[in-house]
């Protein structure tokens, strides 16, 4: 055999030994990560080598033996010393005392829960009564309006007065029940807090002003005062933006002396700009004409809405008659079944003044 062949065989043997050693290293790393039991047989199977090979390689043999011994030491359970009779008796006593405390606390919570349940039923009964009285009140209001429209004469004045008195009594009763309901709810809340052993005070979350609303108000140069901030928090963002559009429309079509005060009214009464108004309106132009309100109209319009005399609608969407007078919807049903009567605001003001 020539020297060249011998060198080739030696190189092949060295390469094979290197590959076998690498397979063993990878197999050991994998078995350690997966928590497998390390023995010569398991390593040989995982690395696809013979156990004789592992025993012959001194470095691999030492490593496998070390890992195997470490696993055996870790797997040995620690012996827990047996508890003494005194310690057992102490543990049992403490557990019984803790059990007594838990039972006492549980009984207290059960009694508190029964009291809360009783008050809750009482509250539900009052709320049902209030709703029923409200419904009766609305019916009496409707009957009163019908009597006013049918018997608007001194002859039937006594009948109208009877309905008015009944309506006033029901209104007072509703106010009384509402106040009683609020007091009971407050009392229920206080008792609920007292029934817990630990009270955690929760701060009311601060609702931020939406960024879209901030941007619109900044453009209009309106500062957010306490009234405006409360209305923004109490109403949906869509309602606020619609009210801002109504303000822009008012600025465009009419002179607004107090934009902040106007916006408060627009949010309160849910005013909107006309549907055909462009959404992105300029606010720099001032044009009088189509929606120039007559003298005294705005004050009467808001008062009529608050008194429930007319239907709440945006003043900018009100139509006009042939004379140019603004038309409002008075809460007087017609004979044809329409729930309101449309008339000029001047005529409606006269009727409202005569009724008061």
Short description:
The protein is mainly alpha-helical. It is 66% helix and 2% strand.
Based on the model shown, name its key terms.
two-stranded antiparallel ribbon, 66% helix, Methane Monooxygenase Hydroxylase, Chain G, domain 1, 4 domains, single chain, 2% strand, 356 residues, mainly alpha
Description:
The longest helix is centred in the first third of the chain and has 66 residues, at 85-150. The N and C termini lie far apart (133 Å). By secondary structure, the chain is an all-alpha fold. A two-stranded antiparallel sheet has the order 1-2. It has helices at 3-34, 40-47, 51-56, 58-75, 85-150, 157-194, 211-219, 226-234, 237-253, 259-268, 297-306, 345-355, and strands spanning 327-330, 341-344.
Individual helix count: 12
Percent helix, as a range, is 55-70%
Strand content: under 5%
Instruction: Flag low-confidence runs.
Output: 195-204, 284-291
Number of separate strands: 2
Q: What integer value in Å does the Rg equal? A: 44 Å
Q: How many separate domains make up the residues? A: 4
Give the overall silhouette.
elongated
User: Which sequence of strands runs across the widest sheet?
Assistant: 1-2
Report on the biggest sheet: 2 strands, antiparallel
Order of helices and strands: HHHHHHHHHHHEEH
What does the average pLDDT come to?
A: 79
Spatial gap, N to C terminus: 133 Å
User: Which structural class do the helices and strands define?
Assistant: mainly alpha
């Amino acid at each position: 055999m020539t020297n060249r062949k011998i060198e080739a065989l030696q190189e092949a043997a060295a390469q094979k030994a290197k590959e076998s050693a690498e397979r063993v290293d990878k197999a050991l790393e994998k078995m350690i990560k997966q928590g497998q039991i390390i023995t010569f047989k398991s390593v040989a199977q995982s690395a696809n080598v013979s156990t004789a090979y592992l025993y012959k390689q001194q470095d691999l043999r030492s490593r496998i033996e070390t890992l195997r011994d470490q696993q055996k030491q870790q797997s040995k359970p620690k012996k827990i010393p047996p508890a003494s009779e005194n310690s057992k008796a102490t543990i049992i006593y403490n557990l019984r005392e803790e059990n007594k405390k838990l039972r006492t606390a549980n009984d207290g919570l059960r009694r508190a829960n029964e009291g809360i349940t009783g008050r809750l039923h009482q509250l539900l009964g009052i709320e049902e009564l209030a709703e029923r009285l409200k419904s009766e009140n609305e019916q009496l209001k409707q009957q009163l309006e019908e009597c006013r429209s049918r018997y608007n004469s001194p002859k039937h004045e006594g009948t109208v007065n009877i309905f008015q008195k009944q309506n006033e009594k029901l209104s007072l009763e509703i106010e009384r029940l509402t106040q009683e309901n609020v007091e009971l709810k407050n009392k229920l809340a206080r008792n609920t807090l007292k029934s817990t052993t630990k009270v955690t005070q929760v701060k009311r979350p601060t609702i931020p002003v939406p960024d879209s609303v901030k941007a619109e108000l900044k453009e209009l140069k309106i500062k957010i005062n306490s009234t405006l901030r409360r209305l923004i928090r109490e109403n949906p963002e869509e309602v606020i933006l619609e009210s801002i559009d109504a303000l822009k429309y008012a600025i465009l079509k009419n002179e607004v002396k107090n934009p902040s005060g106007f916006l408060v009214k627009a949010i309160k009464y849910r005013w909107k700009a006309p549907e055909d108004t462009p959404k992105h309106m300029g606010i720099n132009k001032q044009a009088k004409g189509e929606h120039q309100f007559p003298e005294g109209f705005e004050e009467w319009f808001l008062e009529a809405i608050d008194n429930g005399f007319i239907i709440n609608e945006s003043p900018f969407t009100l139509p006009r008659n042939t004379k140019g007078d603004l038309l409002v919807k008075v809460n007087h049903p017609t004979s044809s079944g329409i729930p309101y009567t449309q008339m000029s605001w001047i005529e409606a003001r006269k009727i409202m003044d005569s009724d008061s």
